[in-house]
Write a structure and sequence with these properties.
This protein is mostly helical. It is built from 15 helices and no strands.
């Protein structure tokens, strides 16, 4: 047995489309969208109906057994006792051709615009600078003050050292002048004290220089924070613009998708309506052809291959029906009338009882005088043929000569009057009766159908 991919609700693709097409060809409705490749509720319902009709487990899931049965049931073998037409597989649905909305040019173009925007504007022009600034803040060293590294301190140092030297020399000169111009220890001591005084002034400047350095450090840090805040705002503005444009492009794409989907659904609806219309016409034409073919077989006549094809009856089934009719005729002509006044011909007791029930008489399984009278003088075999044609118990066939001169308009008018007075079902039943009894010429059957159903030759 072949192995198939299991399909269930939610499945999509060509395998689902193949399943839907096979279900449609087998006469099961998969919804207005037809073979769209989407396994939805309607497809699941069609699978369940098929499973139930074919004795399979009814779960709505198309597995090996269901698909094997469906894909392998394209032929029908006729039974030697066949009296009905095989299942209709003659009508073929057209595939619904469409482009998925996501694959349409307009949606692809909109999607390409989105991708281009995302690639081109992936990062703000301010992001790198912002990251650098943040790194400076995070990696900034703790404040420390180095006197020797302070240029301003060095300036003060040089200035006070020079001034101290000059003041020391001047003081020593004055001290020497007081002693007649001779150097002495006093002059040196006084000069050294003066020099140290200037150095002390330099030391007094250190706290001031420290504070200046600290203020400068804090200002630099504050400047970095301000710069980071400004860059963050600029980056956020870029992001806002990015997402605003992205939302716009996404909306354009979604609108394009919805438009394509709506057009596809509309086209699918038109397609489904056309398929149903064509199928109804096909079934109507086939019903007329089938009625005529079955009537001919019931009379022992073999319809042409074209007529059988139009009726949806295979050659094998037609031959089986013809053989059954011939067999019944042989039984009828070879048998006598014994059995206490009844003659069942070639029919089973069960068939006799069903025919008697249809005639409204006691169903004893014996085709005797009461059965003959109720059937209008028919033998059991004749009654069986009438029963299968749906005419058992009806009034005797009218005289064909009455309708000999009727043309297409007469037949259409006749059945139209019945439809208008008694209803469409009564008109169609009368048409079947006339067709099966050969009362209406073959070339006028379609005109009779128009009258019975209403419409025109163009349907």
């Amino acid at each position: 047995m072949a192995t198939y991919t299991t399909l269930r609700k939610g499945s999509k693709g060509d395998e689902v489309k193949k399943l839907q097409t096979s279900l449609l060809n087998a006469g099961y409705d998969v919804g207005s969208s037809g073979a769209d490749g989407i396994y939805g509720n309607n497809t699941a319902a069609a699978v369940k109906a098929y499973q139930k009709a074919n004795g399979l487990s009814v779960d709505g899931i198309a597995g090996n057994q269901t698909l094997g049965k469906l894909y392998g049931s394209s032929t029908t073998t006729a039974s030697s006792n066949a009296t009905t037409q095989p299942k209709d597989t003659s009508f073929k649905y057209e595939d619904f051709q469409y482009t998925a909305p996501k694959d349409s040019d307009i949606v692809k173009q909109a999607e390409a615009a989105i991708q281009q925007h995302m690639t081109a504007n992936k990062q703000s022009t301010w992001t790198d600078t912002l990251n650098e600034t943040i790194n400076k803040i995070l990696n900034k060293e703790e404040f420390s003050y180095d006197l020797n590294g302070d240029a301003l301190y060095q300036q003060y140092k040089d200035q006070y050292a020079t001034q101290g030297q000059m003041a020391m020399m001047d003081t020593m000169g004055q001290a020497q002048a007081m002693t007649g111009g001779y150097g002495n220890s006093y002059a040196q001591s006084v000069g050294q004290q003066t020099y140290q005084g200037y150095l002390q002034k330099l030391n007094d400047k250190v706290p001031e220089l420290y504070q200046l350095a600290l203020n400068q450090y804090n200002q630099e840090k504050e400047d970095l924070y301000s710069q980071a805040s400004m860059l963050s705002a600029l980056e956020q503005k870029d992001k806002d613009n990015y997402y605003k444009e992205l939302d716009f492009l996404t909306g354009e794409r979604d609108a394009a998708y919805d438009k394509e989907a709506a057009e596809r659904d509309f086209a699918a609806g038109l397609w489904a309506d056309k398929q149903k219309y064509d199928f109804d016409i096909h079934q109507s034409d086939k019903s007329d052809a089938n009625t005529l073919a079955m009537s001919m077989l019931g009379m022992g006549l073999m319809p042409s291959d074209d007529k059988l094809a139009s009726a949806g009856i295979s050659s094998a089934d037609a031959q089986a029906i013809a053989n059954k009719v011939l067999e019944n005729e042989k039984k009828a002509t070879s048998g006598g009338s014994g059995n206490d006044g009844y003659n069942n011909g070639g029919q089973t007791t069960s068939d006799i009882k069903e025919m008697q029930a249809a005639l409204g008489i006691t169903a004893d399984g014996k085709w005797g005088p009461a059965s003959v009278e109720a059937s209008g003088g028919l033998t059991a075999d004749e009654a069986y043929t009438a029963w299968k044609n749906g005419t058992l118990g009806e009034e005797p066939t009218p005289d064909p000569n009455v309708y000999a001169d009727w043309d297409a308009g007469d037949w259409e008018s006749y059945f139209a009057q019945i439809r208008q007075s008694e209803g469409k079902s009564a008109a169609e039943e009368e048409l079947r009766y006339f067709t099966s009894n050969g009362l209406i010429p073959t070339e006028y059957v379609s005109y009779g159908a128009i009258g019975a159903r209403g419409g025109s030759l163009g349907h």
